[in-house]
Amino acid sequence: MHETRPSHTGLEGRIADMIMPGLEAQGYELVRVSIIGRQRPTVQIMADRVDGSQISVEDCEKISHLVSARLDVEDPIEGAWTLEVSSAGIDRPLTRLKDWVRFAGHLARIDMAVPTMQGRKRLTGTILGAEAGVAQLKLDTGETIEVNLADVQRARLVLTDELIRATAQPPAAN
């Protein structure tokens, strides 16, 4: 797992590779690309600002224009498609190593592509940290386990009061 870039495969991976350089040049980081539907697929893009401040509607609009132009030129999707751009949100997906490090101490829900050493595919626990592609979690049972991030199918933060307090930012000064 890359420190600052999410890991995608297939069409989502090709789209991520196409749009990341442009996003990064404009001060954004890609959090996730997701393609939903078949007849008229929706391409969902989640992004963060490199400076750590919250994504605004104007940022989403800027990202939308950037991504739309790139996808129109590269044309990776046959037929009509829809684009949705958003921030990752408070209960965000954990797609990069830096997410696992940044949100240490917070509760996460993880779906594994392959079972853990304990034979579990679904986990809920407090993130203790991560390095070298391995995250440490303290499960609800009190047990501490290591999770190979390459084996994580899906992971996201659980919305808690502590997470809301930790991610709240003071309003921008005028």
Rg measurement, Å: 17 Å
Task: Label the CATH architecture of the largest domain.
Answer: 2-Layer Sandwich
Domain tally: 2
Number of strands: 8
Short description:
27% of the residues lie in helices and 32% in strands. The protein is built from 4 helices and 8 strands, in the order αββαβαβββββα.
Walk me through this protein's architecture.
The chain is an alpha+beta fold. It has two domains: 10-87, GMP Synthetase, Chain A, domain 3 (2-Layer Sandwich); 97-166, SH3 type barrels. 27% of the residues lie in helices and 32% in strands. It has helices at residues 10-25, 57-74, 97-102, 161-167; strands spanning 28-36, 42-49, 82-87, 107-112, 122-131, 134-139, 144-148, 152-157. The strands form two sheets. Strands 7-6-5-4-8 form a five-stranded antiparallel sheet. Helix 1 (10-25) packs across helix 2 (57-74). The longest helix is centred in the middle third of the chain and has 18 residues, at 57-74.
